[in-house]
Amino acid sequence: MMKWFPLLVSLLAWPSYAAGPFARASVDATDGIVPGQQLRVIVEVFAPDFFTAPPEFPLFDIPNALVTFSADRAQNMVQTIDGQQYSGIRKVYAVVPEQAGTITVPSIEIPLGWSMDGKPTKGNIATAPFSFDVDQGTGVFFAAKGLTIAQAFDRKPTALKVGDAVWCGRSRSRPSKRRG
Q1: pLDDT at 5 over 80
Q2: pLDDT value at position 141?
Q3: How confident is the model at residue 13 (pLDDT cuts 50, 70, 90)?
Q4: Least packed by Cβ within 10 Å: which of 48, 60, 103, 148?
Q5: Residue 100 within a domain
């Protein structure tokens, strides 16, 4: 015990440093994801006490997926972790997988500013990469918003006979008849 005493005293006397900023990322769905389904990837950035410069959320690439910023606005929050109060900002990305398989969200590096011992400090933090699976699904799926499908014929379909020619198109007007 005596030979460990100096080490124990030096560890107890070690200056304590304030916790630094950190980031985390997650996907809001994990089961039954199919190609073409829009997912929300949620990125949260935390800084001890307060931000001195807002996080600069970048766009990032994911193979076989489309990544854009969500229409959701960034959300401010406060969280206490191990007795330390953190300011946080949540940003949501819209991710649309283009095919089945495992999708890996890479580490996202985010520049920001925070207060350290009362002084503004700038630096970068990064999320940990994570993966989720996209199922092949059954049937045919496609993603659309406000979709309307219409079909029009130049005569009643019940009046058609084998060998009749029909016109169908996107317009509600019939094609012009040519004479001559």
Answers
A1: no
A2: 58
A3: very low
A4: 148
A5: yes
Note down the domain range covering 98.
18-134
Residue 87 lies in a domain: yes
CATH code assigned at 31: 2.60.40
Residue 30: pLDDT band by 50, 70, 90 thresholds?
Answer: confident
Burial class for 177, CB neighbours closer than 10 Å (0-12, 13-18, 19+): exposed
DSSP letters for 79-109: EEETTEEEEEEEEEEEEEE-SSEEEEEPP-E
Residue 11 lies in a domain: no
Count: domains in the chain: 1
Question: Which residue type sits at 88?
Answer: G
Q: Which of 61, 50, 36 is nearest to 88 (CA)?
A: 50
Give pTM, 2 decimals. 0.66
* Across 112-131, average pLDDT: 92
CA angle 10, 12, 16 (to 5 degrees): 110
Residue 117 lies in a domain: yes
